[in-house]
């Protein structure tokens, strides 16, 4: 059985056509034949056959077509000879030998012709391959995919015909081509290579006048239709005819510009091993597949990313996978845009290299750069070429190397974003990120062998973690390990354990492959001011940095900072994840830290870091006040010139804390390392409310331990007493009652010595909580009543209400519900009058508890639901979990087990998220008991 695409689509057996059915059914067969031996997804089939507006019943219609095609191929007498249409992997695949399909047979013979040892053999193969065409490709079919595919295949036919004509002219058989060439030029009157071949054949056949008339008519047609003159090759041929160049009469000496061009094969070896990048490979495949729909524009793809991210690695791997898509060859040039050893390659030098590769004699290359670019575009016109421009510095280096023919594809790698290419030329940018941990492990597995990797899993994990997915770093370490196969991988892991020495581990002695050298090349390409900003960014604590924090660090206004960061991002030295948040790869940050220590004095670095710490502290103080407006403020001192970040309300404050929390923790660690004790304890204070609301027990305790140490070193009485109180409170918060009492009793003593009634009241409140947690509710009530007396004397209604609610809670724990209810009503009135929603929610929760234990379950549900609403609105996840437990208790008392289970399950999830394992386990037991009751 034979299949036909280079004419009417169909199949035949021994010259007899098989009925494949209507046009759309034949289009399905055409898609499967073009993609023979490859799975074609159902959605892809539908898109190619029906386009953008398929009917509602398209899938059933497609299945019907597939069934009919299969039946036609397997009908009696069809002699399928191994042809099979099967369902695989969400699509269909036509299993058939390529030589049974005229298109694939044509391509194979064309490849064989290019590889032929002599012109006679090449001419015979091309003659036979061109003879397979009986009409335009896919004739009889219509549709967007059909038209685009037909255009591509026609370009292949023209390219093969041009090559065949060149060989026949070289062999002195010009006259036999004359009729064929007249038809080709009539069909493609603007193709200058075809016109040139026809002129040359006419000239060699003694028809010089016709040859010159052919040139004149072509020149007029180009001017009228395109507004351009003939290119330099056609002009050169015309001039040689005017002076009767003897070479034109010598069949052994064809003009070089018009002779058969060599097929360039310039791609370096493909990388091995290659790991991961499946998403990026799929995207490049998609871009290549869409080139037929690119409205006659050259398809240009740009691979961007930081040095060492694997741009060239990916580009070469992809290019070698698609060699068959570019039968006219591949051009490659390393533009050395960021080579630390040499200057970037000039476009003129790169052009000359391409022109010589394409068969232009050095003496025939024009001196003018524009003429060189024009000659280059003429030579590649109509050819199916891949042009890989590696390590480009900027668009100015690239633009002269872009072809003008839509049959070509251009792949560019650069550490810069090259946004101008996307804007002007429609380039498709593809930014590379680091490898995943699984991909990094796979790379080490391939390079070092499965046994060695499996033998030291902890060392492998350390190497993967330290390289943070950077392929160059992984490759360097793998090469070092491979050089010493008897060494333990733990040796390398130990070398990477010290941050200061990490980059030294990646020193290969080769400047082009040394990680520090790779980063240095990108750094040197930055403008001086931008380079300074890059160096300072490496010092910023935390996993990333916001735009406003960066502005504080570098001491610049926000708009100027944004512009500078944009330049660094364009060089792929930082990455913007969420808008206005910037992240550096760990190893890039190490290099930035090195640059900071080299480029700035210690005093200048400390000044920059103090600006950043000041920004974090004052913005956190503002956010804390928005979350708890009635909380007593501490004196933070005047803010730096940049000032805190403006925040509108408590919602914005909570969102800011959520985004900046890792940076705030790192900022406090930095203040401890620097011995900056005042901001160290003040940061702990500023994060206090946020930690409580979010239930971040471990972080809350950790920052207050550091805050306490800083306050002790500082020696200021207020700082010491406040830090004792808050550290004790943090221990209580974490369920560590013994430690809590130690620090709280010391805090109470310090407040009493200072005659600080406010501090005494707060500490009594905290001690009441501790004793309640220990089960001594009477002693808890004593401390709460003492706190209430002090708050009333201070005439602070909000904190008086807080103490009233505490007294009510401990009365309720002692089953004194009447007293508890009276105190709660008084507290609720004060909280609502003064707009303290946290206090209002706490009191409603207390009222719910009182109602529940008094047997008023419906009233309890109402109170709990109102408390839950407020706690969710204010972001109080910590106490939301407690209220959910009590809400579940009430539902259970009412026999509403479904509602009880739902509330308890929510509470368990929140407890686990907050690291409150004991509370989670207690509620889990309640759920188990509920399940047992319902069995």
TrEMBL record:
Keyword Calcium: no
CDD domains, sorted: BTAD
This protein's UniProt keywords: DNA-binding, TPR repeat, Transcription, Transcription regulation, Two-component regulatory system
Swiss-Prot/TrEMBL TPR repeat ranges: 761-794, 841-874
Residues of the OmpR/PhoB-type domain: 1-96
Extent of the signal sequence: none
Record bears the keyword DNA-binding: yes
Protein name in the entry: OmpR/PhoB-type domain-containing protein
Organism: Streptomyces rhizosphaericus
């Amino acid at each position: 059985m034979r299949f036909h695409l280079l004419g009417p689509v169909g199949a035949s057996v021994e010259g007899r056509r098989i009925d494949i059915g209507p046009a759309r059914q034949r289009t399905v067969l055409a898609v499967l034949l073009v993609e023979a031996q490859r799975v074609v997804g159902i959605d892809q089939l539908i898109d190619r056959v029906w386009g953008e507006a398929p009917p509602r019943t398209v899938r059933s219609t497609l299945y019907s077509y597939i069934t009919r095609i299969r039946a036609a191929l397997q009908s009696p007498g069809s002699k399928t000879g191994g042809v099979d249409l099967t369902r695989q992997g969400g699509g269909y695949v036509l299993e058939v030998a390529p030589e049974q399909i005229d298109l694939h047979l044509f391509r194979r013979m064309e490849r064989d012709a290019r590889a032929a040892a002599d012109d006679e053999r090449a001419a015979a193969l091309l003659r036979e391959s061109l003879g397979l065409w009986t009409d335009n490709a896919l004739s009889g079919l219509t549709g967007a995919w059909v038209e685009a595919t037909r255009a591509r295949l026609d370009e292949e036919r023209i390219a093969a015909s041009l090559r065949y004509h060149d060989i026949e002219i070289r062999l002195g058989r010009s006259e036999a081509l004359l009729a064929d060439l007249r038809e080709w030029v009539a069909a493609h009157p603007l193709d200058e290579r075809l016109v040139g071949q026809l002129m040359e054949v006419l000239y060699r056949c003694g028809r010089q006048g016709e040859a010159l008339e052919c040139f004149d008519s072509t020149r007029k047609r180009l001017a009228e239709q395109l507004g351009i003159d003939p290119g330099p090759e056609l002009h050169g041929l015309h001039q040689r005819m005017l002076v009767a160049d003897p070479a034109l009469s010598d069949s052994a000496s064809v003009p070089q510009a018009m002779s058969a061009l060599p097929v360039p094969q310039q791609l370096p070896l493909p990388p091995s091993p290659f790991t991961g990048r499946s998403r990026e490979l799929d995207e490049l495949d998609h871009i290549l597949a869409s080139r037929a729909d690119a409205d006659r524009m050259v398809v240009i793809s740009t691979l961007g990313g930081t040095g060492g991210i694997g741009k060239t690695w990916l580009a070469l791997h992809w290019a070698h996978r698609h060699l068959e898509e570019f039968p006219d060859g591949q051009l490659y040039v390393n533009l050395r845009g960021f080579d630390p050893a040499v200057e970037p390659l000039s476009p003129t030098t790169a052009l000359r290299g391409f022109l010589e590769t394409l068969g232009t004699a050095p003496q025939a290359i024009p001196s003018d750069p524009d003429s060189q670019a024009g000659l280059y575009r003429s030579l590649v016109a109509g050819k199916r070429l891949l042009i890989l421009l590696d390590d480009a510095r900027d668009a100015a280096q690239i633009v002269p190397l872009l072809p003008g023919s839509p049959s070509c594809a251009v792949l560019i790698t650069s550490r810069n974003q090259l946004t101008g290419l996307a804007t002007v030329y429609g380039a498709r940018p593809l930014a590379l990120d680091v490898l995943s941990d699984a991909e990094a492990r796979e790379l080490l597995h391939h390079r070092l062998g499965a046994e060695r990797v499996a033998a030291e899993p902890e060392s492998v994990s350390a190497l993967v973690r330290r390289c943070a997915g950077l392929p160059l770093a992984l490759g360097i370490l793998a090469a070092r390990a491979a050089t010493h196969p008897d060494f333990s991988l733990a040796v390398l892991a130990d070398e990477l354990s010290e941050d200061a020495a990490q980059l030294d581990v990646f020193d290969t002695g080769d400047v082009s492959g040394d990680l520090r050298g790779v980063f240095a090349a990108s750094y040197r390409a930055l403008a001086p001011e931008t380079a300074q900003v890059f160096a300072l960014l490496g010092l910023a604590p935390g996993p990333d940095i916001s735009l406003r924090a960066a502005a504080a660090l570098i001491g610049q206004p926000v708009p100027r900072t944004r512009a500078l960061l944009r330049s660094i991002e364009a060089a792929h030295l930082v990455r913007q994840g969420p808008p206005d948040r910037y992240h550096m790869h760990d190893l890039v940050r190490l290099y930035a830290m090195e640059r900071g220590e080299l480029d700035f004095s210690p005093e200048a670095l400390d000044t920059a870091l103090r600006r950043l710490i000041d920004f974090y502290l004052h913005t956190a103080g503002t956010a804390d006040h928005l979350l708890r407006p009635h909380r007593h403020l501490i004196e933070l001192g005047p803010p730096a010139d940049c000032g805190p970040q403006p925040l509108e309300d408590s919602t914005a404050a909570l969102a800011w804390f959520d985004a900046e929390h890792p940076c705030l923790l790192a900022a406090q660690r930095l203040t401890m390392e620097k011995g900056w004790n005042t901001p160290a304890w003040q940061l702990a204070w500023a994060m206090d409310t946020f930690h409580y609301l979010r239930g971040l027990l471990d972080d809350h305790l950790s920052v207050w331990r550091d805050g306490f140490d800083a306050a002790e070193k500082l020696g200021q009485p207020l700082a010491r007493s406040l830090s004792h109180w808050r550290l004790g409170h943090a221990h209580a918060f974490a369920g560590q009652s013994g430690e809590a009492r130690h620090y709280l009793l010391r805090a109470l003593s310090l407040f009493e010595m200072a005659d600080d009634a406010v501090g005494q009241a707060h500490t009594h409140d905290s001690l009441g909580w501790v004793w309640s947690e220990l089960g001594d509710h009477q002693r808890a009530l004593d401390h709460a009543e003492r706190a209430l007396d002090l708050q009333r004397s201070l005439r602070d209604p909000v904190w008086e209400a807080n103490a009233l609610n505490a007294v009510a809670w401990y009365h309720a724990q002692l089953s004194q519900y009447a007293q508890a209810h009276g105190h709660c009503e008084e507290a609720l009135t004060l909280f609502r009058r003064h707009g303290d929603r946290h206090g209002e929610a706490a009191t409603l929760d207390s009222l719910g508890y009182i109602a529940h234990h008094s047997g008023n379950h419906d009233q309890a549900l109402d109170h709990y639901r109102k408390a839950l609403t407020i706690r969710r609105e204010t972001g109080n996840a910590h106490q939301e979990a407690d209220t959910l437990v009590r809400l579940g208790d009430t539902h259970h008392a009412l026999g509403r087990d479904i509602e009880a289970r739902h509330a308890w399950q929510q509470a368990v999830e929140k407890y686990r998220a907050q690291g409150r394992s004991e509370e989670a386990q207690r509620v889990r037991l309640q759920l188990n008991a509920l399940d047992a009751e319902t069995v």
